[in-house]
Amino acid sequence: MHLSCGVYSSPHGLLRPMSLWFQPKPRSVLYCDFAGFRVPEMTKNRPVIVLRAHKRNRRLVYVIPLSTTPPVPPQPYHFHVARSPVTHAAPTQAWAKCDMVAVVSTERLTVGRGRSDRQTGRALRIPPMITEEEFERLRLCVAKAFGFGAGSYFYDAGMRETETAIDSP
Questions:
Q1: In this predicted model, what pLDDT tens digit does every residue of 18-66 receive, in sequence order?
Q2: What are residue 52's phi and psi, to 5 degrees?
Q3: Which of 81, 54, 59, 85 is nearest to 70 (CA)?
Q4: What is the rounded CA–CA span in Å between residue 40 and residue 116?
């Protein structure tokens, strides 16, 4: 799928990438402009992995921010990506901050340097994606961050009751 991303002129005359006009697929690696958030929230432009689309609003997605700085100390909810899915000059590592899931507008999202056409060399604007295996491990880290693993209050008390209520006619 080719993305329709270009540039637009800001009031300050600077050229900035255009935002997405659709919901990206889960596993996509994009850039998110967190401007307007407040410290200690994410407050700058950074790569993110799309976790899922919002169920009712097509302009919202759940994202997980990426960082090249190792967490200190590492926690079970920090997902280590051995090779960053973001294009860098040299191979580098990345960490998904699964405890900082955010719901953001697709207007905050842009495609970084995606794949290019081998014949023409032109950018196709196809965002990189993490593997299915990495995505499943990432989802487990999100569950740990929110306390939804085995042995947690939600799993032991709430989840079993919810599963029973859903399964009953």
A1: 677 778 999 999 999 999 988 888 888 999 999 999 989 989 999 999 9
A2: -170, 165
A3: 81
A4: 36
Sign of CA dihedral 70, 140, 91, 19: negative
Rounded to two decimals, the pTM is 0.73
SS3 assignment for the chain: CCCCCCEEECCCCCEEECCCCCCCCCCEEEEEECCCCCCCCCCCEEEEEEEEECCCCCCEEEEEEEECCCCCCCCCCEEEECCCCCCCCCCCCEEEECCCCEEEEHHHEECCCCCECCCCCCECCCCCECCHHHHHHHHHHHHHHCCCCCCCHHHHHHHHHHHHHHHCC
Whole-angstrom Cα distance, residue 2 to residue 55? 24
Give the model's pLDDT for residue 101: 96
Domains of the chain listed by start with CATH number: 7-167 (2.30.30.110)
What size, in residues, is the chain?
169
**167 class by beta-carbon count within 10 Å (0-12 exposed, 13-18 middle, 19+ buried):** exposed
Cβ–Cβ < 8 Å for 31, 46: yes
Structure confidence by residue, pLDDT tens digits, 78-87: 999 877 888 7
